[in-house]
Amino acid sequence: MAMEASEIEALIREAFPDAKITITDLAGDGNHYAAEVVDESFRGQNRVQQQRAVYAALKGKMDGSQGELHALALTTKAPE
Length: 80
Hints:
The protein has 80 residues and is α+β, with helices and mostly antiparallel strands. The protein has helices spanning 5-15, 47-57, and strands at residues 20-25, 32-38, 71-77.
């Protein structure tokens, strides 16, 4: 089952309400996306910590072979 970019953004926005979020559908199939999340809460965290926080915000949508979201290329950072 595919996901819309707006659904991905809404899930991330719940956890990071003030973030700048950019979602790109990489393959046009609703299963392969790239996301850039820029949020002040990432300041002082390493990249793994930042990305784990975003994956947690997806509430299991990427879990296992039956996940709704197959692939997400993730870029995270604090604002410059």
